[in-house]
Amino acid sequence: MRTTVGIIGAGPAGLLLARLLHNAGIDSVVLESRDREYVERRQRAGILEQGTVDVLRAAGAGARMDREGLRHDGIELRYDRKRHRVDFPALTGGRSVMVYAQTEVCKDLIALQLAEGGPLLFEAEALAVQGVEGAEGVEGAGSGGPRVRFRHEGREDVLECEYVVGCDGFWGVARTAIPAELTRVFERSYPFGWLGILADVAPSHDELVYARHDRGFALLSMRSPSVSRLYLQVPDGTDAEEWSDEEIWDELERRFETADGWKLDRGPVTQKSVTPMRSYVHEPMRYGRLFLAGDAAHIVPPTGAKGLNLAVGDVVTFARALTYEKETGSAELLDAYSETCLRRVWQAERFSYDMTTLLHRTPDATPFEDRLQLARLERIAGARSAETDLAEGYTGFPLE
Ligand SMILES: Cc1cc2nc3c(=O)[nH]c(=O)nc-3n(C[C@H](O)[C@H](O)[C@H](O)COP(=O)(O)OP(=O)(O)OC[C@H]3O[C@@H](n4cnc5c(N)ncnc54)[C@H](O)[C@@H]3O)c2cc1C
């Protein structure tokens, strides 16, 4: 097989990239190791920044999102049994976010790709990326050109391409093609994770609620007007099955409790899982003709709702750079890819880390640190500059 851009992974990054390239008249092949049903059902992100919404619309992938997505103009912070609403449009000059699940974004992009785009192979696992060598400029690729070895329908095959984009998430293979001596990894893991449930009950609040509590963090989110998504901070290594549904609801109730008698509605739990928390950045995001995008290059704790949005930023940057190269012959933007993406990535890393440390309780937190956490929340509730900083970070850092 031969194509211009070999894309490994059909998560939001790989699927959107294939769409953007198709729209620019550049052909690609997407290899995805899992089957279609698995990709369309994997519960993950749910908050789209304004910039992501704009990109999906411009790519022709926003019609169902505009019909079914829920525009949110704010979030609520809870601490000390108090409530504070952060009003995004008022603080950011009109920006908001969209609640539209990652599963739905992927379904829309898969349907478009299969109807109009290039090949998208499910159950096609990339085994190795070869021939991308040359850290200096895209001209430095190995003489045979980039190749992706993959397994599909029981046999091995090779995809030959001009460029490879590794959109294969944190556990993928693309990153391993970059020599260790050229790589710097920045990493932090946290001593807690999120126990997440999906429940068939209307959300108890019409906006997301981020609660800081002495027993740990809790988040109320939603997937639709009739499906709630809720999370509890739990110790690292917790098994979701250790918690009965009733224990989860009881604990959520405690952590969301307010002085004004707000009530949490319960319903049947349809899914339950634990997500570990990690901050991770792989530098550089490019090596020769191999480019990394999305979770393949960076992970943020989900507190800031940034992961999917960063993935979108990366592939927009790559698609623009490659289009520029095809139109002008200049590899200037491709050569700047890693630095361009990393500037935005580090702002999102900072924001996600700040949100996480603002709201979660570490097992060894001292009373002094507890008070500082509350003081930071009071500052956001009381000072417009601090509140604006949160609103700007949450609604998203602009693409360069
Ligand atoms: C519980 C949870 C909540 C989250 N909430 C949010 C949120 O609210 N907002 C937000 O923006 N982000 C959120 N995120 C993060 C977000 O889901 C990820 O950042 C996003 O999925 C990244 O997209 P991606 O395409 O880079 O990677 P992925 O979605 O991981 O996709 C990678 C794809 O590559 C495939 N693959 C892997 N290896 C191979 C191989 N060798 N060959 C072929 N295919 C391969 C995988 O099967 C997968 O389909 C959340 C994540 C979790 C876990």
What does this structure look like?
This protein has 2 domains: 2-69 and 102-187 and 278-354, FAD/NAD(P)-binding domain, CATH 3.50.50.60; 190-276 and 363-395, D-Amino Acid Oxidase, Chain A, domain 2 (2-Layer Sandwich). The longest helix has 23 residues, at 337-359. It has 12 helices and 19 strands. The strands form 3 sheets. Strands 1, 2, 8, 9, 10, 11, 17 and 18 form an 8-stranded mixed sheet that branches. Strands 6-5-13-14-15-12-16-19 form an 8-stranded mixed sheet. The chain has a 3-stranded antiparallel sheet with strand order 3-7-4. Helix 1 runs parallel beside helix 6 and helix 8 (307-328) runs antiparallel to helix 10 (337-359). With 400 residues, it is of the alpha+beta class. Residues 8-14, 31-34, 39, 44-47, 102, 125-126, 167-169, 172-173, 196, 275, 294-295, 302, 305-309, 311 line the site of flavin-adenine dinucleotide (FAD).
Key descriptive features of the protein:
single chain, 400 residues, alpha+beta, FAD/NAD(P)-binding domain, D-Amino Acid Oxidase, Chain A, domain 2, 8-stranded mixed β-sheet, 19 strands, binds flavin-adenine dinucleotide
Overview in brief:
The protein has helices at 12-23, 36-41, 50-58, 63-68, 88-92, 102-116, 245-256, 307-328, 332-335, 337-359, 367-382, 384-395; strands at 2-8, 28-31, 47-49, 70-72, 74-79, 82-87, 97-99, 120-121, 124-130, 147-152, 155-166, 184-199, 208-212, 218-224, 227-235, 269-283, 286-287, 290-292, 298-299. With 400 residues, the chain is of the alpha+beta class. It is globular and about 65 Å long.
